[in-house]
Amino acid sequence: METRIPVHQARQGDGDGVLTLERPVTSIMRRTSKEIYAIRANRVVVKHHLGRIVAVIEVVSPGNKDSRAALRDFVGKTIDFLRQGVHLLIVDLFPPTPRDPLGIHKVIWDEIIEEPFDFPVGKDRILASYETGGERAAYVEPVAVGDPLLEMPLFLANGMHVKVPLEPTYQSAWNACPEEFRLAVETGVVPEPDAQGD
Fold first, then answer.
1. Domain limits of the chain?
2. Which of 63, 101, 107, 162 would be 38's cystine partner, CB 3.0–4.6 Å?
3. 0.90 exceeded by the pTM?
4. Cβ(22)–Cβ(3) under 8 Å?
């Protein structure tokens, strides 16, 4: 059934338009119900006691690299933090995509200065700590799937950092996860919901 509602046109002489509830028909149509994960914060913010942000730990999500726009937004926010004097620790444990074939660090660092970068053989995930101030420095640790996560520096001021215990933190979070969640991550199989809704 078609519903027609007259719509007043702003320009004179156009007459009335017709608003219809029918779906448009074109040669090609695409639709997605995919959520935009990139807008979900995976960020720990460290503030000075007066409220100024001094450091950020950013855990990259698949959504941050899901599209050119998402990656551009992520890199743009990263560069904005560095310009504001905020030190960063980036944890990217997802494989490179066609948008970041040499990893997220290369994309970020190219915005500062373009330099050659290659992954060591067998290591294509990145931990990167950025110190900003008079000059910017990047402390980069490539890792492989299955490697224990190394302690990484998080700078709180130029020349001053704390060591972030990434592996113990990950293990604590993993051990606190429900068994069903751990099984789904390990096998890639999401359990069926209980028929009774329990």
1. 37-187
2. 63
3. no
4. no
